[in-house]
Amino acid sequence: MCRILGSVGRYSELRQYYSELIKGLVGSSEYDPHAVRAFGAGRHSHRDGWGRATIFVSSGRKALYMYKSLSPIFVDKPNQPLPEPELLKYCDPITVDLIHARAGSRGMPLNYFSVQPFETQTRSGSRLILMHNGSVDKDRLAKDLSHRLSDEVIEKYSDTYLLTLRLADLIGNDVSISAIRELSKYTKTALNLGIAVISEDLVIAVFGSSYRKQLPSEHRTYYKMYSARVSGGSIIFTSSTLVDFNEYRPKSLSKWDELPNGTYYFIKIKIKPEEETQVLVEKHSIYS
Fold it and tell me: SS3 for 252-263, per residue?
């Protein structure tokens, strides 16, 4: 149970929308009608910490900002819609933003170590950042990762941390739909993801949603995700609550598209010194 917000685009364009987006995320994390309908009145908020990872990319330059808090996002109320990188001195960077407000699944640890997004290294040494909404099979993941994990780590960290380590075992500098398809085998409820893979000359962002088809309708509504494309080419992704309720929906973004179940966007940002940064967008489904 979590609410997520992610985006890819030029810094100058995204910041036009972020005050409203953050306000909507804070509000929908404090009181989530979809969560009440799916899980009951006692599960109305996402109070188990929040975190953010923001990557800035320009010609030959990269920067990474990370923040985690065990306080709820609706208590901290971040007053900076987007972090301001030093790169703004030189350029208008491509920005990849991942924000996660957590409501821990039953039986998962509630501690600072389980606040998302998580970061680790892939098998080739690239940096992997991942956030997740839904629940996955922690016992099965622990078994498949038993060669590298102690019982203490398994107890201290959540199912999503183990999912991050599993993805790190599967990829190098790139991430494909086949890797997401492999992760989907661990899904108990949903696999709503925000991912960033950072290497020397490439940053890949992945955002998408899948959930078990046999879930009750209230659960499917809770787990669905939306995307919005704005005129300059930026793409924004968010959990359903921020769009489905007028009190949370940004007034500046009128058109949202529901992501079909199983759909993931792959956004590749190619970094070339002294050349314009290239951004390529692909869309794939784990069901095809």
Answer: CCCCCEECCCCE
| Contact criterion met (CB below 8 Å) for 13 and 234 | yes
Write out the residue range of the structural domain in which residue 207 sits: 2-285
Q: How many angstroms separate the CA atoms of 249 and 46, rounded?
A: 18
- The total of structural domains in the chain comes to 1
Q: Is the pLDDT of residue 150 over 80?
A: yes
The identity of residue 36, as a single letter, is V
Distances (CA, A) of 199 to 30, 66, 168, 169, 204: 36, 17, 13, 16, 9
Token code pair at residue 62: 């990269």
Three-state DSSP class for residue 168: helix
H/E segment holding residue 285: strand 278-285
**168: burial class by Cβ within 10 Å (0-12, 13-18, 19+)?**
buried
**CATH number for the domain harbouring residue 115:** 3.60.20.10
Q: Is the pTM of this model over 0.85?
A: yes
Residue 267 CA to residue 209 CA, distance in Å, equals: 15
Give the separation between CA 239 and CA 25, rounded to whole angstroms: 9
